[in-house]
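Design request, tokens follow.
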């Protein structure tokens, strides 16, 4: 599977592609166009984010961090956050430990 080829970006909403889901992990990608937002939400399980294309801004608790190609970030558990696409096309993957 080639994530970039399988991830058609949608100008209306963030795009989501599930890559693998088992009883222990959920591995998926999200695509955002420039200035598109992944709305405020939180995760209850450890999640690792990796930027695969473009650049994103990760916002949480009044903080902001820019993440670029191949940057890896541990998303804070149980904290509200949102993500904004900064380039024309932005894709990041998420791995969640669901079988805890």
């Amino acid at each position: 599977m080639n994530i970039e080829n399988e991830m058609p970006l949608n100008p209306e909403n963030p795009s989501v592609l599930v890559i693998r889901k088992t009883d222990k992990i959920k591995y998926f990608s999200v695509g955002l166009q420039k200035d598109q937002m992944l709305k405020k939400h939180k995760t209850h399980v450890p999640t690792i984010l990796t930027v695969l294309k473009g650049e994103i801004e990760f916002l949480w608790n009044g903080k902001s961090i820019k993440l670029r190609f191949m940057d890896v970030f541990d998303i804070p558990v149980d904290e509200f956050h949102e993500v904004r696409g900064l380039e024309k096309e932005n894709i990041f993957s998420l791995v969640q430990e669901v079988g805890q």
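Comment from the thread starter after seeing the answer: thanks! The beta strands are 15-21, 25-33, 37-41, 47-53, 55-60, 63-68, 72-75, 81-85, 89-97.
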